Amino acid sequence: QVQLVESGGGSVQAGGSLRLSCAASKYTHYTRAMAWFRQAPGKERELVSSISYLGTTVYADSVKGRFTISKDNDKNTLYLQMNSLKPEDTARYYCAAGFVTTDLSYWGQGTQVTVSS
What we know:
By secondary structure, this protein is mainly beta. The protein has strands at 4-7, 10-13, 18-24, 33-39, 46-51, 57-59, 67-72, 77-82, 91-100, 103-107, 111-116. Helix content is 0%, strand content 55%. Strands 2, 4, 5, 6, 9, 10 and 11 form a seven-stranded mixed β-sheet that branches. Strands 1-3-8-7 form a four-stranded antiparallel β-sheet, with no helix packed on it.
């Protein structure tokens, strides 16, 4: 089993920045691809960004140019740098990991991000 623990969430004003971290308890083939999702109250969970084992990144249109995903393989840690935050970015952010980005087996408990106007 792999545990994913997110951190770095909080409250920030619009235009501010946060960096989320997701630490995996160990490396396996099933943590080589990772992603960030988010879910706002009353809305479905949506993909924010993903990174494949080759380093290929994907971003939701709503965050392109503002968010950057990265992964430190030595530390088994995934990051999400979020800049120019908007109130609509308010959500609970979840980290996920798997063999490929389209088949994610492990999920964290999430970290709350609240952006005020």
